[in-house]
Amino acid sequence: MPEKTPPELREEMRGPVMWLTIDREERRNAINGAVVARLSDALARANSDNAVRAVVITGAGTRAFCAGADLQSGTSFKFDYAAPYQNIANLFRQARQSTVPLIARVNGACMAGGMGIMAMCDMAVASSQAVFGLPEVKVGLFPAQVLSVLGGLLPRRVLAEMCITGEPITAAQALELRLVNRVSDDVDESVDWLLGRMLDKSPAAIRRGLYTTKKIEAMAFEESMAFTESQIGLFALTEDAAEGQLAFREKRKPQWSGR
User: Fold this and answer.
1) Alpha carbons 55 and 141: distance in angstroms, whole number
2) Per-domain residue ranges for the chain?
3) Rounded to 5 degrees, what angle do the CA atoms 96, 98, 102 make?
4) In angstroms, rounded to a whole number, what is the distance separating the alpha carbons of residues 103 and 97?
5) SS (H, E, C) 131-200
6) Rounded-to-integer distance, Cα 156 and Cα 158, Å
7) pTM of the predicted model as reported, rounded to 2 decimal places
8) Digits of tens for pLDDT over the chain (259 positions)?
9) pLDDT at residue 75, rounded to an integer
10) How far apart, in whole angstroms, are the C-alpha atoms of residue 239 and residue 259?
11) Three-state SS string across the chain, please?
12) For the chain, is the Cβ count within 10 Å smaller at the N or the C terminus?
């Protein structure tokens, strides 16, 4: 009986944190349709399960976080032009709607579509050996959908240079540009630092807070202000808000219900 092919996206629950690992190390964790579909499915399940407090996305090994689309297959840029949406674009849309914090653990080279996966996350930590690049122009292409998630994270001139020359930047440069939150020789230490300061906070406040933050990103000032005026009342109505304020007055740690 033939051996079952191992999944190219590994999923693991570590306590309340879902870990998603692109497991195509021999291809520098380049993504294909199957990986994108599994990422999309996992994010959908994470968002529907209040027990999931965060999602960490990373790549197998130490060489690469994600090298982008798998060019070796020869099919990555052959689309069904009758379909109005493409799978990677839908993944970015899905991340934009996520109310579970997404953390990119950038353990190596982060290139092309990998930059999009990193950018769609709410936070990113990187190994000091990581490099970041948009090399599509070297094979006659352009980042396209990646620009939609990356454009708000980098200065326009920096983004233009990366797109037009295809030249990468270092982890130190990425930190200076605030493309990532933290850079460390021990990337897991950085992930643990973030998770440790997230998991003891109100689950309800974080989920509703992410919803609010993402909702107002494209709003004009007055529209944003009107929306957030309505949201603060909803924050105050949650059980977590009542518990948090009571715990503050009683000088004890809050016991969150996530409601």
Assistant:
1) 30
2) 9-196, 203-250
3) 95
4) 15
5) EEECHHHHHCCCCCHHHHHHCCCCCHHHHHHHHHHCCCEEHHHHHHCCCCCEEECCHHHHHHHHHHCCCC
6) 5
7) 0.91
8) 344 556 899 999 999 999 999 999 999 999 999 999 999 999 999 999 999 999 999 999 999 999 998 877 655 545 555 454 578 999 999 999 999 999 999 999 999 999 999 999 999 999 999 999 999 999 999 998 999 999 999 999 999 999 999 999 999 999 999 999 999 999 999 999 999 999 999 999 999 999 999 999 989 999 999 999 989 988 889 999 998 999 899 999 999 988 9
9) 53
10) 5
11) CCCCCCCCEEEEEECCEEEEEECCHHHCCCECHHHHHHHHHHHHHHHCCCCCCEEEEEECCCCEEECCECHHHCCCCCCCCCCCCCHHHHHHHHHHHCCCCEEEEECCEEECHHHHHHHHCCEEEEECCCEEECHHHHHCCCCCHHHHHHCCCCCHHHHHHHHHHCCCEEHHHHHHCCCCCEEECCHHHHHHHHHHCCCCCCHHHHHHHHHHHHHHCCCCHHHHHHHHHHHHHHHHCCHHHHHHHHHHHHCCCCCCCCC
12) N
Q: Show the tokens assigned to 84.
A: 């109005």
Supply the CATH classification number for the domain 9-196: 3.90.226.10
Tokens matching residue 95: 């991340």
**C-alpha dist (Å) from residue 113 to 14, 50, 82, 92, 200:** 26, 29, 22, 11, 33
Total residues found in the chain within this entry: 259
Rounded distance, CA 54 to CA 46, Å? 8
